[in-house]
Each structure stands twice: as structure tokens, then as C-alpha cells.
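Page 47, continued from p. 46.
Same chain as before, 75 aa.
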Amino acid sequence: MTQSAELSKRTPEEIFAHHAQALGTEDLDATELDYADSAYLITPSGVLHGKPAIRFNQINSAVLVSRPGHLHLLL
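Result:
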């Protein structure tokens, strides 16, 4: 089964809960599972397309606002 098929089986509530949990545990790999390969993410700085662009944005955002013991991602 493709990733798109797997994503389509989850409710928005399930996806949001998983995403919040992944962010809370600072697990960028897990947050990536919540996006389709061709996902778009609209941010204040522009539109991102695809998992590589979204992940790059998350890593850069985390570096900019992280402090010891806390990782805050700007999505």
C-alpha cells in the first residue's frame, strides 16, 4: 500500500494528534510521516512543496528557536 493510501485512512484528528505528539517529543522523522510526498505547506515566508522542502524548513526553524531541552518548530 502506498503512503498516500495510508494517509487517507487516518482522520484529520488522528493526524493532528500524531503530529502534536511527534513535535512534543522533538521527532522530526515522525512529523514527516504526516505529510504526503507532494504536500504543500504555506508559511509566512512562502509556500513549500514536497517532504524535502518541508523537512528543511522544520530543521532550520528548529535551529533558530531552539534552546537547551526545548525544541520549538515553527510550521
